[in-house]
Each structure stands twice: as C-alpha cells, then as structure tokens.
Specification:
The chain has one domain: Rossmann fold (3-Layer(aba) Sandwich), CATH 3.40.50.850. It contains five helices and eight strands. Strand 1, helix 1 and strand 2 form a beta-alpha-beta unit.
Amino acid sequence: MKQRGLIVIDLQNEYLPSGNLPLSGIEAATANAARVIADARAKRIPVFHIRHEVASGDAPIFKPGTHAVEIQPAVAPVGDEPVIVKNHINAFRDTDLRQQLDTHGVEEIIIVGAMSHMCVDACVRAAVDMGYPVTVLHDACATLDLSFDGVTVPAAHVHAAMMAAFEFGYGTVTSTQSYLTAQ
C-alpha cells in the first residue's frame, strides 16, 4: 500500500456561521474531517493542515492575526503536524506543501476541507497534475451558494458538480464512512 497523507484545507473559523464567509454544511464537514484526522493519527498517516491568509492586512476575509484565520478547534493540529500558510487558492502555490509531502514519503493524498469549488478544487487538480493519486471525502468538504449572471446555484449543487468533476477525471470521491470502513 502506498504511503498516504491527509491534507486538511482551510477549516478555519472564517467559514463558521459566526465568520465572514459562512459555508453551507460546514459543521457536518468539520465533524467528518475530525473523524478522518483521528483515524489518520491512530494509523500514523501524516496530517497536513492548510491555513489561508490574505497577503495584505486590509482584506475583509482571512485577515492575518485575527480569530477568523485560526483553524477550527475540532480539527486543530497537534504535535508536529505541519501547518502550511497559503496566500493563494492553490495550497501548492508559493508554499512548501510539495516538499512536506516528499519529506513524509507521501505517495497518495486524501483531501478534506473548504471550499469545494475553490481551494479543494485547486489542490485536487494540482496534486493530480503532480502525479499523486487523490481521494476526496465529499462529506468532509463544504461550500456555499454561488451566483453568476443573475443565476444563483445552491451550495448542494455547486458541491455535487465539483465532486462529479473530481470523480470523472481526477480521482476517487467517497464518503467519510466508506473511507474509514475500507481502511
């Protein structure tokens, strides 16, 4: 079996109902992510935490040094688990995520986090482009309603479209329970 690594993307306070960018289903996604993190720790699978911050201090969201950018307590890193701070949507861009994965001998990636249509999407596609097999745990990810050209797309549809795209051409998409049961 290939060495797996778990990437936990942007499960930060900003996405909670009390944050500036609340996501649909974030509490359930975080609870599922916490289960996967606990399983990874028990099996000595390395866990990599991604935290988004904007590069400038005057942004309305993900402002450095605020409570909003902190990782939610339910999925907070422990011990020497790496926390990779990113300033872009893609967790690999201008970070040492690839080097961290290589240092830990990771050959296959499991992804959970937020937002399904942005940072999760960018990380999945970049990881696959780098040659990593990827599994996304769909119920440990969350997103929000989107609007374009007068059309509002409900979060559930945005999320389903992203998961369908991943499954179609990028990797495995499964539920938290199915993933944990198969281990």
